[in-house]
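From the methods appendix. Each design record in this collection lists the tokenized structure first, followed by the designed amino acid sequence. Records were kept in a plain field format so they could be parsed without special tools. The example shown here is representative of the layout used throughout.

RECORD:
FOLD TOKENS (105 positions):
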């Protein structure tokens, strides 16, 4: 599975997704793009967009994008707060669907 980490997700978190191809928004040169443009670019090359931005589903009409979105709800976006959620995130990756938001908390 090809996963794109949002700029609000620590780059080092990609190490936790063994068996998946994981890139960070900054690696792609997309860090300055707003969510609509970012999703339009991401849907061409990725299966899943992983973010901690809880407002994304309210700001974008996600069914129009050919990419699944996983929103992680944690205390903060620090790696130490996200690491305990990795098993749930990995489980969510197996269930997420294109054009829909899957929430992990």
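DESIGN:
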């Amino acid at each position: 599975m090809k996963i794109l980490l949002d700029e609000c997700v620590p780059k080092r978190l990609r190490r936790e997704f063994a068996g998946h191809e994981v890139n960070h928004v900054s690696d792609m040169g997309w860090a300055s793009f707003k969510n609509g443009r970012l999703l339009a670019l991401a849907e061409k090359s990725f299966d899943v967009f992983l973010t901690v931005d809880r407002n994304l589903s309210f700001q974008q009409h996600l069914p129009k994008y050919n990419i699944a979105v996983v929103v992680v709800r944690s205390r903060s976006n620090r790696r130490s707060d996200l690491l305990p959620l990795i098993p749930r995130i990995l489980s969510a990756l197996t269930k997420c669907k294109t054009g829909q938001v899957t929430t992990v908390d």
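APPENDIX NOTE: The two ends are 21 Å apart (CA to CA).
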